[in-house]
Amino acid sequence: MARKGINEVYPHLYQRGKILTWLRTDKVELIEGLNIGVIVNMWPKVDAELSEMPLDWYLQLSTPRSENMTKPHILMAADAVATYMKASPRNVLVLCEAGKTRSSFFCALVLRRMGLTVDETFATLRERIPAMELKGFMIDYLRGPE
Fold first, then answer.
1. pTM for the whole structure
2. Buried b / exposed e across 39-52, counting CB within 10 Å, b at 16+?
3. No. of H helices and E strands in the chain?
């Protein structure tokens, strides 16, 4: 499903590029309309308006370089998001600048923690995030032991 450029990746998990430039009213409409409880932002720019939104968490994981996406704090955040998704009726929105690489990879990390196999993860991402552009090291990481 695509709605305002939002990709529904998995139950309770949405993805897209940045929303920093959106009007505040559009952000509130998105959060309330999709019952978003957590936003994970991997774009280096902080969206101050999100700190005032009706969220349970706003994770600012500043990762200007995609090579940093396998660092321990990113993996811990993926663990936390998967735990949240299993326990909360609210949804998660994962953002990065273009909505192609970092946010797609983070979604892959979460899907693996939700119990999907590597093949199921790749199939889901290909179907649900048409603009996905994972880098070779990301694919290798997902295929390797966790």
1. 0.94
2. bbbbbeeebeebee
3. 5, 6
Q: Spell out a b/e string for 72-99, using b for 16 or more CB atoms within 10 Å of the CB, else e.
A: eebbebbebbbebbeeeebbbbbbbbeb
Give strand pairing partners of 36. Answer: 91
Cα dist from 131 to 9, 74, 88, whole Å: 12, 22, 28
DSSP, res 129: -
Look-up: residue for tokens 């590029």? 17
Q: Please provide residue 10's backbone torsions phi and psi, each rounded to the nearest 5 degrees.
A: -165, 160
Amino acid at 135: K
- H or E stretch including 113? helix 102-113
pLDDT band at 88 (very low <50, low <70, confident <90, very high): very high
93-139 pLDDT, tens digit per residue, is 999 988 899 999 999 999 999 999 999 999 999 999 999 999 999 99
Rg (CA), the chain: 14
pLDDT of residue 144: 87
